[in-house]
TrEMBL record:
A single GO BP: DNA repair
Bias-annotated ranges (Polar residues): 135-148
Coiled-coil intervals, chain numbering: none
Ranges where the record places region Disordered: 129-148
Helix-hairpin-helix DNA-binding motif class domain ranges (all copies): 164-183, 194-213
InterPro entries, per database record: Competence_ComEA_HhH, Endo/Exo/Phosphatase_dom_1, Hlx-hairpin-Hlx_DNA-bd_motif, RuvA_2-like, Soluble_ligand-bd
Name by which UniProt lists this protein: ComEA family DNA-binding protein
UniProt keyword annotation of Membrane present: yes
UniProt keyword annotation of DNA-binding present: yes
GO molecular function, one term: DNA binding
Amino acid sequence: MEKIVEIIKENWKMMVLILVGVIAGGSGYVLTQPRTSDQPVAVTQLENQPTSSDTDQSVSKSENPISTSQIVVDLKGAVKYPKVYRIAADERVDDLIQLAGGFTADADQRRVNLAAKLKDEEVVYVSKKGENSPEGVTNTSDATDQPLTTSSAAKVNINTADLASLETLSGIGEKKAQDIIDYRTKNGNFQKLEDLGNVSGFGVKTLETLKDSICID
């Protein structure tokens, strides 16, 4: 123990210098370390927060889901799913019928003009076979109370009509109807009514008979 005390007495200056050096080195290390700031984090968080203007615009868009290119049509009668439909403004009756699942078995398809253009707030009624249009069914886009006109005298569009629609034409059976479809599939749409004469079996007399019952647009 006495030897240790003597050693400490003899080397106390060196030990003090070592201790000071350790303290100075530790302080320098701490002072040279970069300080982390919370400010950038706070700024980033604020920048990512949606503004009240953005929120208002988002709500405004979600509250207006109906496109201005759509119309609303009330489909009634002999279709699988009669109801009010929202449909594109450039669609036709045929598109509406398909959207409703097609005709029912008792639908009088001969009285429906599948090529007719749809109008906003229109009522489309598909009659059953042997049925007259019901009283009180009106076209709601008109201000008058005129009954909705059925399509018994409507022309058949030979560019868009299907097989069943073409067969409703006078003197046109399944074969001639299919010939019309095959011709327009191969050659494109008819440009004028007289082009129907290019289809086999459609002579001048046939065209004269059909001219008031068909159209191309």
